[in-house]
């Protein structure tokens, strides 16, 4: 975004609080009869469909949707309870040909897909804001900067599995889709003015076509604080405790962190307690959890202690790509030089275009091209490598020659 554009936006009047939806707070759709009427209403509506979903992260297991909000011209706003109406595919079908407008689509698409809603085309207002160069791209910040309204954001982290949902939460949820289409229209105009609209459309198409994310390999390695654990048997304790906690959390439909904090898992791994008494003395474990729960955790520790050496986890997960960049200087100094030159070139171009580096080109793609560059790193060969790694055509056009030059400089 240019200085003139920022100045023009900064000169807008003070933002106006948006306190209530235009048509009031709609009733929650929680019956098949009401859902069928909603399907008919949205089938008769026109234009893009604003879509949002609320989850119960930190309270429930997994990332399922506990409320789905939609708004469309001619249909108004709908708040749907996907617990009472678990199959929303009839609604997904009648709006399937419309453009869906979401904010941070990558967060909501998986849980929407679980209830049968998958867009053929979308517009992501958060991603649009990043490409347009906005410093703050949260929904509230974008609505305030672009449209001049402030949204109340106090209920974003509440337990959306609560039933019945309190009225203030429903008001918040309805307001989240109230201005999404207006924001979309303003951002489309902004992107067009910057010559980036075609780029954004390629990004939106890639988002809409992306398959569901695959399960993580060794998800226990993402335990907060696991970097403190140095020995393989201690890592085995982390793995056993994490797996036990995950099973309990799934069975109880509770967030794993509410069953046992990550810090407690790491503390037990470092101490490798001999019995429940020693375990109860560690941070995060106490007698209030009950003797049976302590025995469950100690049994997990004991399983790790009993493992044969060959069955202990390795210090790092199996590599499926380049090593961490911090190790490049020792493993391959030439590759480290290539990466340094490439990063500097990408940073300069991203600043020139007014967007984050990671939106200009995936950092992982840059690392892979620098670690194993084409035999003859021409713009054409680099373009082929980036395309194979999933880069969009606009990204390839912007950075292939740039990276080819950086690879040559790094080699020198």
TrEMBL record:
It holds the Pfam family DNA_pol_A_exoN. It comes from the Bacteria. Residues 231-311 form the HRDC domain. This is Ribonuclease D. It comes from Streptomyces thermolineatus.
